[in-house]
Amino acid sequence: MEVLGGVRYDAVFLDVDGTMLWMDLDLEGYVEDLAPYAAGELTPHRAARPVQEALREYIQENVRYRTVEELNGFKHANARRTARLLGLDAPPEVLLESLERRLSFNLFPETVEVLEELRKTGAGLYVVSNWDILLEDVLEEMGILGYFDGLIVSALVGAEKPDRRIFREALRVSRTDPRRAVHVGNDPVADVRGAAACGIDAVLVDRSGEVEAPEAVATIPDLGRLPELVGS
User: Fold this and answer.
1) Nearest to 176 by CA among 186, 163, 167
2) Is pLDDT of 6 > 70?
3) Domain CATH number, residue 154
4) Which of 3, 70, 128, 200 has the least C-beta neighbours within 10 A?
5) How far apart are CA 98 and CA 30, in angstroms?
6) Which Pfam families match (predicted)?
7) Residue 139 phi/psi, 5° resolution?
């Protein structure tokens, strides 16, 4: 598959959040679910910071939990801390059920078409993502799991991008020389710098038009140009 500079790519690595899909939390709905358990008035404004802190902790710490049991234990502990911060007299299950109901994953409009075009190139497609052990379930629910030849997930590898270990695992799983692989993602450090440090070409997806990544071999506003860029 011919690309920039005449390099032939045998594998395309793709980030998930911010690259193929985005996450959205219905904060007002979340507050509505939990208001009956609050000692005082619970508003979206009051809930915003504790909920953001809880999500940030989850994102930062989930890589440590490599079994469903361990992850569920962490989720319950996280929910209990959130309940305390919000002043809620509610069991963790209530918060977790509300979060599952109010948190949605949404594919970017071009994602499926681009994946279909990339499959036609003959290159292997692999997810390389900082995510918990349940990423496979998410991708299956979104209807895109079948496009991929493998998933390299931080929580299963035990290392997060930009750590070289996760990119080396992607190369091992795909049986690809770094010079024959390209990584595509939206983070200039985790995706671009991390891949470049392993000798892998990196393409930055900059949907805002405000991100700089000098190590990237190309910058694109969305995934639409990717098949052309990598030589479909």
Assistant:
1) 167
2) no
3) 3.40.50.1000
4) 70
5) 6
6) Hydrolase
7) -65, -35
Distance between CA atoms of residues 207 and 18, nearest Å? 9
Tens-digit pLDDT profile for residues 44-90: 999 999 999 999 999 889 888 999 999 999 999 999 999 999 999 99
Where a domain ends, among 104, 132, 163? 104
Q: For residues 82 and 54, state if they share a domain.
A: yes
Regarding whether 15 and 126 lie in a shared domain, the answer is yes
Q: Dump pLDDT digits (tens) for 144-185.
A: 999 999 999 999 999 999 999 999 999 999 999 999 999 999
**Which segments of 108-147 are extended strands (E)?**
124-129
* Length of the chain as a residue count: 232
- Beta-strand relationship, 218-220 and 201-205: parallel
What's the structural domain count of the chain?
A: 2
Identity of the amino acid at 198 = C
